[in-house]
Amino acid sequence: MKTQYSISLIKKSEAKTILDKYHYLSYKSKGFKSGYNYGLFKDKILVGVCIYTGFPVPELVNGMFGLERTDQDGFFELSRLCLEPTVQNEEHNLASWFVSRTIRELKKTTKVRSILSYADSDVHLGTIYRACNFVYYGKSDQKSDFWIKQTDGSFIKHSRGKIKGVEGCWIPRSRKYRFAMIFDKTLNMKWKETK
Asked: Model-level pTM?
């Protein structure tokens, strides 16, 4: 029963304990951007994390809505969502229940014009976002990441900075399903809705 669960803001260090252990990106990168970090607690034990951050680049808001840098407040990305697998399996619709309530809490504390989220096509389909009434806008463009060769022959993903003269290779990134929820009815979405 969902009466056992509560939601509150948590520190990045608390979110890290769940993300490092259970999130699928933890094997690629231990880092993540902090923002509005919501924790899901079952009987006062942290069992889930949902994080909202600003859009990663201003060009994204421009591409979605045609807005310039001076008009980009209120745009958020649901950048991390993770539940401890046991509770997710035991409690029906827990993930969508958690997301919908964190959105409600976010709207109470700040201006929210739109929320964007991605579902990695190699891992999941975005069923949770559909259940929360996000609209599907097709797949992201194909992109590649530069991976730096290490002395032991392994590779790590390069995050930022110059790569000239660095040994490594470009590896195509999986395309992502794009989902958005728009609260500001004056916004004109440029992406086409996909069924």
From this structure: 0.83
